[in-house]
Design goal:
It is a single chain. By secondary structure, this protein is mostly helical. The protein starts with a helix and ends with a helix.
Length: 157
């Protein structure tokens, strides 16, 4: 198994084979989790919860940031909607496409933050400036908005 993981991490296996392996591992995990009676499964779940509460929220953050910031802005234009909403989208029965899901997420963020017309707004890590560039009344009008992005390529974009 370690050999296969090593080959996969070095990108020496085709995606189709990797997907088969992922499905196999998922199946094994589900079978393992379903073993035993309800009390035994609940005990395992509690043990996992207890373990996770002692762990950091994020691990390998430096590596993740390096990998993330290696990607050019053009990549994100290929995989995101027209608003370039990076962190999440909000889907519902009335949402038909990625662009609408991005708008819905930005709208609910604005509502929950209590943003109002005329406010001064600072966004740290604003990505491609999706919040700054939103139109159509999602973000407050007549507001002073500053977006700060750590990645030089995204700032230039």
């Amino acid at each position: 198994m370690n050999l296969l993981i090593d080959l996969m991490e070095r990108r020496l296996l085709p995606d189709a084979l990797i997907r088969v392996g992922i499905r196999h591992l998922n199946k094994q995990t589900l079978q393992r989790e379903m073993q035993g009676n309800v009390a035994e499964r609940l005990k395992r779940k509690k043990q996992l919860f207890d373990f996770l509460t002692t762990q950091p929220i994020a691990i390998e953050t430096d590596t993740a940031n390096q990998q993330h910031y290696e990607l050019p802005p053009g990549f994100f234009k290929l995989v995101m909607g027209s608003h370039l909403k990076y962190s999440c989208c909000l889907w519902g029965d009335d949402v038909e496409n990625l662009d609408q899901a991005e708008v819905r997420a930005l709208s609910i963020t604005s509502q929950r933050a209590g943003l109002k017309d005329g406010m001064k707004i600072l966004e740290l890590g604003c990505g491609m400036g999706q919040s700054v560039n939103m139109d159509g009344g999602i973000l407050p009008q007549r507001s002073y908005y500053i977006g700060f992005q750590f990645q030089l390529a995204a700032r230039v974009y």
